[in-house]
Model the fold of this input.
Amino acid sequence: MMDWTDRHCRYFMRLLSPSVQLYTEMITAAAIVHGDRDSLLRFDETEHPIAIQLGGSNVEWMKTAAKASAEVGYDEININVGCPSDRVQSGEFGACLMARPDVVAGCFTAMQQAVPIPVTVKTRIGIDDQDSYEFLRAFVDTLAAAGCERFIVHARIAVLEGLSPKENRTIPPLNYERVLQLKHDCPELEIVLNGGLQNLDQIDKLLQQVDGVMIGRQAYHHPYFLAEIEKYLRPEWPLPDRRAVVAQMIPYIEKQLGEGERLGRITRHMLGLFGGQPGARAWRRYLSEHAFREGAGVGVVTAALDMMPIAA
Done:
């Protein structure tokens, strides 16, 4: 979800679901140690509960990044051991670290000792030819022995040679059974399943067998799905009106534009809001064609909304 779940995206998604836990895009520990820390760690208070995903293998850098994240108020720190991109591999973090569980355990221990909030791990079920339950279990056992209690498991292996990051999200087949077996064998651990979840029926069945689910691409491309999940979890909660959500975004957009942000950097996350509704294509097209123009302001958003049928 790199370059997807930025702070603008998370602010928008929080309007659709008050209680789901939000995760940042992966941020490298090196960037926090050597870069613009304030900008990288920035988030809005409305985003709680929110977890930051950190990538890295240098123990001291990961510890420093964890402390900085806790100090600014994140609710959880997640070590990303799932990203398969070449850039991530060259930096020795992401999915390639599944082959080095002791390194991940060392980072976890240093980080958890340095912060008062939970440190968790997001992982794949395997990498390359290491495609077995035994490999996954050995990785998890090493981290559990170090004290990790919560694992988010993407139910696909990562193919580090020969597949692009995009292909790694779809081509390796899903294997939910391996994740379910992990939960069965390790009932004391909190296991959250990730990967390919697209409807409430899937979620309902899986929540009877694991402790939670993580939704990525489906929630991004069809953001109103988050509202439907919230309604499933809390039947008494009223589904939000899509138009009202846009209206709630206007003051935020105005504030961000005043600070120098470009409109398109915000509205790109809103393109799928009216998915499946009459006029959805016109909404997407108008925002896509006008939001990145020089000087584009909130008038672009209101004009796009005016193109939607009132019932949408």
